Predict the structure.
Amino acid sequence: MSGPVENRTVQDGLRNLKRTCEDVIDTLRSQRELLRQRGMGLPPGTLSGLKDVLDDLDRVSILLASDATELEQLRALAETTALVNSSLDVNQVLREVMDTVIALTGAERAILCCGTN
């Protein structure tokens, strides 16, 4: 199971790949004129292919961040479920559940209403 440290490592790796790809694009652009002077050129689609790789790296980074958020939420839900199943103190359970709900939703506060039907 991956955690925050592994996620940061992967995100760092993606940033490094993106930087490297951008450097290669810049180098190829700067060398393009020199190649023309010698009667050569870049293979067709080289720069556009590298730009596609950059776009793909951005998409992977966004998906990874989304997956990390979802994983954090699932872990919080599992912890809350474990608390509900292990505690006999209803007030403690309700406090913990409400704290989790606030953390997961980003709310400033929450209110629990109990109906009497």
About this structure: Residues 46-86 form the longest helix (41 residues). Residues 35 and 41 are 5 Å apart (CA to CA).
